[in-house]
UniProtKB/TrEMBL annotation:
The lineage of its organism: Bacteria, Pseudomonadati, Bacteroidota, Flavobacteriia, Flavobacteriales. This is Pantothenate synthetase. GO terms for molecular function: ATP binding; pantoate-beta-alanine ligase activity. Catalyzes the condensation of pantoate with beta-alanine in an ATP-dependent reaction via a pantoyl-adenylate intermediate. Belongs to the pantothenate synthetase family. The reaction proceeds by a bi uni uni bi ping pong mechanism. It is found in: Cytoplasm.
Length: 282
């Protein structure tokens, strides 16, 4: 596996691959790699000649400086996971100046209102930061296909919107949420939970499965009340939000409509760690 440590080295590498007509699959990450990332690479490997990943903890998408500081970083561990997986041909590890040559700040985007829902409300500026880094990475890596997990479903929708609006020549592929055996959606943040708390957090997935059973049987306000009751009885867990939204507009709804797809979204804070999950409702 090639380790590409600057924009210049990446550009030379990409140029050679393009000359050989290689189809590039790309999965950007912020490191702290886990099996969820490996599932992105597996999808990428099946559909491309070459798989590239990036590791870059993007400062502009953290609205909370403490969260940025606490974000787990272990580049040698990550490189060894990538090597062992045998799924990735090259990893790009840029310096901050490779992404932000002047000021480390975001561009401002209009994602047609997608940015104002859910995470946009609780994390102002977050999606401008994500858009900025992903657009820049796409311009440098020039992938044919790019892979993102459905765990961050709103991020995935926003990246699709950015690609459409900016007419970027890349196909965006959503990859289903990768779950631990107990159902907890894999996330780099899970590393900050001890084993007991990780086990207790399976209640998030169990709740989403119940919501899927209740969907179209009882009203959405009733579902919300039941979810609130579940988390009121969980020690050390706070339900930050639970809602059901239209999958396309991401607008919250209290009513079902025919011919629309709906998804349940949840954020729970467990011992100060913010866990996010979602589920398509059948
Ligand atoms: O999902 C992530 O890990 C990040 O938001 C991304 C897409 C790598 C951009 O920094």
């Amino acid at each position: 596996m090639e380790v590409l440590k600057s924009k210049k080295i990446l550009q030379d590498f990409i140029e050679r691959q393009k000359e050989m007509g290689k189809k590039i699959g790309f999965a950007p990450t912020m490191g702290a790699l886990h099996d969820g990332h490996l599932s992105l690479y597996k999808n990428a490997k099946e559909e491309n000649d070459l798989v590239i990943s990036s590791i870059f903890v993007n400062p502009t998408q953290f609205n909370n400086p403490e969260d940025l500081e606490k974000y787990p970083r272990d580049i040698n561990r990550d490189i060894s996971i990538l090597e062992k997986s045998g799924l990735v041909d090259a990893v790009y590890i840029p310096e901050v100046t490779d992404i932000y040559p002047e000021k480390t700040e975001s561009q401002h985007y209009n994602f047609d209102g997608l940015e104002d829902e859910m995470e946009g409300k609780s994390r102002p500026g977050h999606f401008d930061g994500v858009g900025t880094v992903v657009e820049e990475l796409f311009r440098q890596v020039k992938p044919d296909n790019a892979y993102f997990g459905e765990k961050d479903f709103q991020q995935l929708a926003i990246i699709r919107k950015m690609v459409e609006k900016k007419k970027l020549p890349v196909k965006i592929k959503g990859v289903p949420i990768y779950r631990a055996e107990n159902g907890l959606a894999l996330s780099s943040r899970n590393q900050r939970l001890d084993t007991d708390r990780r086990e207790a957090s399976k209640v998030i997935y169990e709740t989403l499965k119940k919501v899927n059973e209740w969907f179209r049987v009882i009203t959405i306000p009733e579902i919300k009340q039941r979810v609130q009751d579940i988390f009121d009885n969980q020690r050390g867990m706070q339900l930050e939000y639970f809602l059901i939204a239209d999958e396309e507009t991401l607008k919250e709804t209290d009513f079902f409509y025919k011919d629309r797809n709906f998804r349940a979204f949840i954020v729970v804070v467990v011992d100060g760690v913010r866990l996010i999950d979602n589920m398509h409702l059948d």
